[in-house]
Amino acid sequence: MLPERRQVVEVVIQCAVTEYRFVGGTCTCGRVQRSAVPEGITATVHSTVRGVGARGVPLTQSQLLPYQGTAELFQELAGIALSPGTLQRAATVAATHLEAPVAAIRDALLTALVAHADETGGRVNGDRHWLHVLSTAGLKPSAYFPGVLVHDHGSAYARYQCLHAFCNAHRAS
Q1: ∠ CA 58-87-78 to the nearest 5 degrees?
Q2: What is the largest CA-CA distance in the chain?
Q3: What distance in Å separates the CA atoms of residue 80 and residue 158, rounded to the nearest whole number?
Q4: Distant-in-sequence, close-in-space partners of 105: CB < 8 Å, separation ≥ 6
Q5: What separation, in Å, do the N-terminal and C-terminal C-alpha atoms of the chain show?
């Protein structure tokens, strides 16, 4: 008979701190020397975009948690005191890092022979707004497309100066 086993699964969130120490002094020749500070470390306490920001950006931008609520979550779960401004800055830095890949995707979409278009609607302050998506099997999104656009007859797609193909796969018959 095999020994019996029981397991308890827990989520453990930890705060990891890396401390850098710098020394300085004056050489016998009179020259002042100081240790080099690692690139990007600009404050005495620094929440990195790779660290806190990498966890905070999806919470604020994808899960749509408010900056204040996300800061409170970090404090409660990991004892990390953040300002909402730190999280907002992390989102801004992340957006800057996405500029080049988004431009490359847009350029690739412009040369695609066929693309699919779709939309979803939602209300903001009581007004109806639409989010449009243009994609290929491996690329997404752009507002400009010169190839064959496959879509669901939505009138919004008439503005595209391209060939249109209609898809009824998701419409009720």
Answers
A1: 80
A2: 89
A3: 50
A4: 139, 140, 141, 142
A5: 60
| Contact (CB, 8 A) for 147 and 163 | yes
Residue 114: phi and psi, rounded to 5, are: -140, 140
163-166 and 24-26: which strand pairing?
unpaired
106-115, pLDDT tens digit by residue? 888 878 888 8
Q: What per-residue confidence (pLDDT) applies to 14? A: 79
Distance, in Å, from the CA atom of 15 to the CA atom of 78, rounded to the nearest integer, reads 6
CB 99 within 8 A of CB 35: no
23-71: pLDDT as tens digits: 899 989 999 998 888 887 777 776 655 677 888 999 998 888 999 999 9
Q: What is the DSSP letter of 69?
A: H
Residue whose C-alpha is closest to residue 54's, from 83, 17, 26, 91: 91
pTM value? 0.55
Residue spans of the domains in the chain: they are 8-108, 111-173
Residue at token pair 């300002």: 83
